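Notes to self, Polysaccharide pyruvyl transferase family protein WcaK:
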Amino acid sequence: MNEKIATLVYTYGLKNGGDMAINLGAIQVLQDAGYTVHAISLFDKSHIEFKISNKYLNTYNDIKLFSSPFTLNREGNRKQKIKTTVHGILTTLGLTRASKGLIQQISQSDIVVFNGGNLLRAKGLSDYARLRALMYPLKIALKYKTPYIIFPQSASKIDIIGKLMISKYLKRSDNVFTREEISYNYLKDRFNLKNIKPSIDLAFFIQSNKKNGIKKSGIDRIAITVRAQSVGDLTEFDGNKYNSIKEHIKHTVKNLAKDKNEIYIVAQTKKDIQISRDIYSELNKDERIFYIEEQDPMNLIRFYSECNLVIGMRLHSLILSLLSGTPVVGYFDKSWGFKNPGVMDMFQMPYYYLEENSNLDQISLTAEDLLKNENMHKQKINELITLNKDQLITFIK
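result:
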């Protein structure tokens, strides 16, 4: 029997535990569907994140990881960024060695899979440049008649230029999957799609080889993740919003740090470390409050399984918690798009917005209510995960 090759574009790095969780879920689904997985990294082979993610992914899965034809990371000085931009343009024109390698890989694949995430957004020049690079593998797939699918996505606002850039690639995909209903309805109406199907975030499909932890008897462990970044983590929020987040989280921690509760402030993304440390440093005199840094999604799943509740500003802290059977409360900025309310609505979990924080006690009151009914959601969560994974595999086999 000939092996079937699925080329996954692009895989993310380990700086963000949620991004790596998407990788693991995508690879798991493809392997369960009978494919050998070849993956194109978001990073070129000279980048440290390529080396780290290659080692990490092959700890859990047998895959081949190839270098990105672009330098898609947002680092470097102005001169380096100009050089990166010029190289990217030449690559999309098929004029670099990297583009020729990608063409060979895609043309020899049985299927190309556009990785899941929050990639379908466009309202400015930086988004247009990003989309041009992201859609390049799909452009190659169309040229060489390699079938492709788009794994579960969320969307934010897509302006008319963005619509013109990606409409063809959405409509000519074998299937377009979304990870929540709000994005499903938005993309279906915005592009008049007939090939779109609802699903859930790929991180839900991880099969952890680490057993869930054991909850402490008589102690409620509550984890909190904090975020102060714009959509796509492009920039940090301004001082007023940054400080507002700090004060609201501190207020919530103080409300919950009582009796035998243990409160853990968790930085599961490197860009969240500073604000998480800032909050902890102002609260660490209380021996019931702890701080941890962890970007490994497998370790996070185990840790969240040991919690009785997670309050999250990072969506994947909530997803990995739900995966391990732990109830959650969301706290979001509206600019982060449809993904957050969409996922929370699907699993019937409560959430609040930064813009509506007039009642500072609301999150802690909701958390206390969930702690009293901790186990009532587990069966529904497991049923949703099994149903959506089976459906996704059926469409890609």
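- The mean pLDDT is 89.
- The first helix runs from residue 17 to 32.
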